[in-house]
Design a protein that fits this description.
9 helices, Tetracycline Repressor, domain 2, mainly alpha
Length: 188
């Protein structure tokens, strides 16, 4: 019988926090059990395996990110929507590097997979930004991949303290948004 008061959601939340604290690559069942104050076998009453936990952490990350993006972008269009998306994405990655890493390359089990559904909401928010720039449908996949690469790259480099040379990363971030806005606004 599972420990009283411990739920699957508690285990996943603790796993996500542990991934943020020690890095997703170091996420393992024994340190999670220790954090929760249970023996490792007790975790298997809530999750099937480490892979199951990793998938659940990725799903949690995409749900949290999708909700944050939706809230940040509400009522915005054009450069304002682009800036809101980028800032929210970056803030999430910096605040939750382990759980965000869990989502990168996580495979879907099908179109009914909660990870797939949550990831689709993140892409829908990004597509909403691009629709504000009248990106033609045949170019949408390319535009989505481009924005994802740019935002992912900036956020993960900053989260890893990779901007150590002179100059303020905030100034570079604003410059990047202006650069993207000009490129997306130009006629195709």
């Amino acid at each position: 019988m599972p420990r009283a008061g411990l739920s699957t959601a508690d285990v996943v939340a603790a796993g996500a926090q542990l991934a943020d604290d020690i890095g997703f690559a170091n996420l393992a069942m024994a340190p999670l059990a220790e954090r929760l104050g249970v023996r490792t076998p007790s975790l298997y009453k809530h999750i099937d395996s480490l892979a199951d936990l990793q998938h659940a952490v990725a799903t949690l990350a995409m749900r949290e990110l999708a909700e944050a993006l939706r809230d940040a972008m509400q009522g915005r269009a054009g450069r304002d929507a682009l800036a809101a998306f980028a800032a929210t994405f970056r803030a999430y990655v910096i605040a939750h590097p382990g759980r965000y890493t869990a989502s990168v390359g996580a495979e879907f089990t099908g179109t009914d997979d909660p990870l797939y559904l949550a990831s689709a909401k993140v892409l829908e928010s990004m597509a909403a930004v691009l629709r504000g720039y009248d990106i033609p449908e045949p170019q949408m996949d390319h535009a989505l991949r481009t924005l994802r690469c740019v935002f992912h790259g900036f956020a993960t480099i900053q989260a890893a303290n990779g901007f150590q040379w002179t100059g303020d990363p905030e100034t570079s971030f604003d410059w990047m948004i202006d650069f993207l806005d000009r490129g997306l606004s130009s006629p195709r």
